[in-house]
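Following up on my earlier thread - several people asked me to post the actual chain instead of describing it. Fair enough. Here it is, all 368 residues.
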Amino acid sequence: MATAYPKTRISPRQDLTGWQFGFWTVLGRDPNSVGSRSPKWFCRCRCGTERAVVSVNLRSAISLSCGCRRGVREFSMIRLKKSWDTLLGQQIICAECDQPCPRTGPTQRYCEACADRRAIACKAKWYEANGSKPRPREAVRQTQVRKRSGLMEAGRAISVGERWSLDMVFPDEADFAWVRRFEVPFTYAFSKNHSASIAAEGHRFLRKETCGAREAVTNIVRLAIQGADVLPGKLYLDILVLKPNHYGDAINVLDHLSDAIKIAVGLDDRWFCVARIDWQIIKVDPVILIGIGQKHTEPVHVCAYCGRLLPYDRFHVRKRSKTGIDRQCKDCTSHRKRPSRSKQKQESQQNIILEDIPVRTIERIDQP
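Reply from S.P.:
Thanks for posting it. Predicted structure:
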């Protein structure tokens, strides 16, 4: 006996004999309703009542009993228990070859071989009516893959033709004392959503891939700056990110690259100046083009008072500091320096003499 599966659509033309809908068990079709738009089925309730029920009410679970289910507490659970598991292990008689076959679906009418044969015949009939040849599914898939690969190859060719070169980094090289250009492999480990992870305790830490990528960039920078005279002062960065798609970001790449360059160069990142940061989508061999350079030829220091960048000889010597010079330049120090005691004494005596001279005497002297 079959049980209706509430989530499966049942065809109105299907024979429901033997099916169970709630407390109803279908016995057969009502001969008086043959040919009507709303056929009826003779059903027997669990209590023994027999009645003709409209097919729509059975298929949509509107009618589930003759009325005896009222007051039955467990009836609401009966409808939930009507699952596909109750149909497993049953057999049906194929409507074409009249052979028993295992049931694989709630509305199954044919065995697997007959179903495949009918599907092929139906497709052939459609192709004959529409005037086109049947194409196997594998051939269609290969055509789509071939077309997609051709478009991708054309896109790669265009991308390679417009690729930025390393010469585009620091085009105004004449303004710098020294410039170094190099490239590092592109990696998503520098991206915002890939660089860090959160531990179970809420601690945020860098991933191993990000730390490894930083180490690799640090080693590349150390090899690139060999022979360059890196002095305390502004260090200019020119970064071009050639990424494979528009998923990664270039701003967070700048942060990680700055940390790696700081370790390799030995300058604090407070001296770094970003001359340019730009990105381009390249489909072949994505890299990061980097350029670093300095404009001054002698070490400079920032005055704590005026904020100017001045050479070391513009500061007083201070052996206790790390740099060996004072934090204030000589100009700022001279303005705040007090006069000596002898000069203060002379100025005070002159003021006293001028105060003792009467004003009238000064007026007489000025008269012609």
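The chain has a mean pLDDT of 80. That should answer part of your original question.
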